[in-house]
Amino acid sequence: MRFMSDIEIAQAHTPRHISEIAALAGINPKYLELYGNYKAKIDYKMLSETSAPDGKLILVTAITPTPAGEGKTTTSVGLADGLRKIGKNSVVALREPSLGPVFGIKGGAAGGGHAQVVPMEDINLHFTGDFHAIGAANNLLAAMLDNHIQQGNALGVDVKQITWKRAVDMNDRQLRHIVSGLGGKMQGVPREDGFEITVASEIMAVLCLSSSITDLKERLGRIIVAYSYSGKPVTAHDLKAEGAMAALLKDAIKPNLVQTLEGTPAFIHGGPFANIAHGCNSIIATRMALKMADYAVTEAGFAADLGAEKFFDIKCRKAGLTPSAVVVVATVRALKYHGGVPKTDLNQENLDALERGLPNLLRHVDNIKNVYGLPCVVAVNAFPTDTQAELELVERKCNELGVNVALSEVWAKGGEGGVALAQEVVRLCEQPNTFSFAYDADASIPDKLNAIVTRVYRGDRAVLTANAQKQARQLTELGFGGLPICMAKTQYSFSDDPALLGAPDSFEVTVRNLKVCAGAGFIVALTGDIMTMPGLPKVPAAERIDIDENGVVSGLF
Question: How would DSSP label each residue in 110-152?
Fold first, then answer.
């Protein structure tokens, strides 16, 4: 028996007109900007013109990812559908997929099975053009910087201290390190250069953390692109670039409205990666979801040590958000992988390996409860190969930490398969919480790094290289010491070594570079061999993606 693929399930579904979905969410038509029949943008002015109270905010996060998969987005969509199944007014707020993973490893990122957002092909391919606008704004700033240098360099930019890179939304290792400006005097100033993937651009973070077009423009102006020969930061405002950049982003700042397969309203906006950026959708979209529903479900990228940590310590801190409950997604297969079972043997019952892998889940759960002070539930994303003994073991170990487990069958059953999870989430949302951050933003940069490593990762300490120590002192002297930290770290381990699975201890995390993102309002700490421009795998997903003479796309997961 052949199961339908995600894209086949999506294509077999007939979505409702987006104006119906907007009406269901209570959005006044005057704020609706249609992009065809099934997509729309919502004017952010709606937020300042509504007096509706905020609903409950629910974060969906996960265990440390493995090749076996976890299903965080699928669970988020299924939970929102499940909440509606039990009579609750819910909305889901997600990130936009990057073309890098779409054509690289994953092949699509709109949920899965019967818990998807649609139109799936559009969402994965270009969508409403937000990422292209971000890339254009990024590269306009780069062009204006190089033009300034070419035209006399009145700001005294040191070409060896340029921190701003160009951007493209594609995995392309060839562009990581390049030399630009070759060809003679009139072709620019020769210098080392490079590209980041668009989701790693500071402009992506700025867009996601802005509250209005005015706030966006002010943040864009604060972006530091280089340092002068005297060591002074050179900003986008110094280059008079922020106005034109904001003009390019005037539509991109508006959240996108789509729907789940079951017609639940879905805001999809922004898409920073959680291993190299802050990993959350936009503040505007989240606030919109909170105004439009009693329960707003959102997700943060990768595991709780990355996406959730940044959701709490960066996004919630900056936006003044307080989550009501957290869902930690896990699969029995992934936990067995953490316990040492190779991917080829994950379908076989193995309680010993599951027991060895469970500490990874339990550490994430303990962090949510005891570091951040929030109630949580473990959602076990069900696979047909899971045995009753394995499921009972997961439940027993979680119960020992005072956390309930809900079996999530949303991939196969849609919202109906998320009813048990939805009921537990509603219960948790009524529980008191003592939400707090992992560190005080006013602490020193080294102290904040140590707090993340020791309290969240459970390592021994953060080790700053000589270069990072120097950068920490310089950033503090420049007045940036009070900014939160955005850790750029492997997603495959609590540590900075992707080979250390499970719940390692007695490790150090080496910080090799610190960079201030003054517009976004955080300091990026680069650890291990993490890079801001991924490469394609040996067999990229792009090789499986195709389109027929009728315009039907295939191969997107």
Answer: SEETTEEEESHHHHHTTTTSHHHHHHHHHHHHHHHHHHHHHTT
Write the pLDDT tens digit of every residue in 301-321: 999 999 999 999 999 999 999
What sign does the CA torsion over 217, 219, 223, 228 have?
positive
Residues 284 and 456 sit within 8 Å (Cβ to Cβ): no
The one-letter code for the residue type at 314 is: I
Structure tokens at 30: 């005057």
Best CA proximity match to 301, nearest among 322, 326, 272: 272
pLDDT at 107: 62
Burial grade of 183 (CB within 10 A; 0-12, 13-18, 19 or more): exposed
Task: List Cβ neighbours of 135 (8 Å cut-off, separation of 6 or more).
Answer: 167, 168, 169, 198, 201
Assess contact for 323 and 57: CB atoms under 8 A.
Answer: yes
CA distance 237 to 445: 26
**pTM (whole model) above 0.85:** yes
Torsion of CA 188, 191, 196, 202, to 10 degrees: -80
- Beta carbons of 440 and 388 less than 8 angstroms apart: no
Closest to 95 in 3D by CA, of 273, 215, 263: 273
Catalytic positions, written as ranges: 72, 74, 95, 106, 274, 302, 383, 411
- Quick: pLDDT tens for 375-403: 999 999 988 899 999 999 999 999 998 99
Q: How many CB atoms lie within 10 A of CB 132?
A: 16
The H or E element that residue 70 is part of is none
Residue 409: CB partners within 8 Å, gap ≥ 6?
382, 416, 417, 418
C-alpha distances (whole Å) from 375 to each of 332, 503, 515 are: 22, 21, 34
Distance (Å, whole) CA 34 – CA 132: 19
Q: Which SS3 state, helix, strand or coil, does residue 470 take?
A: helix
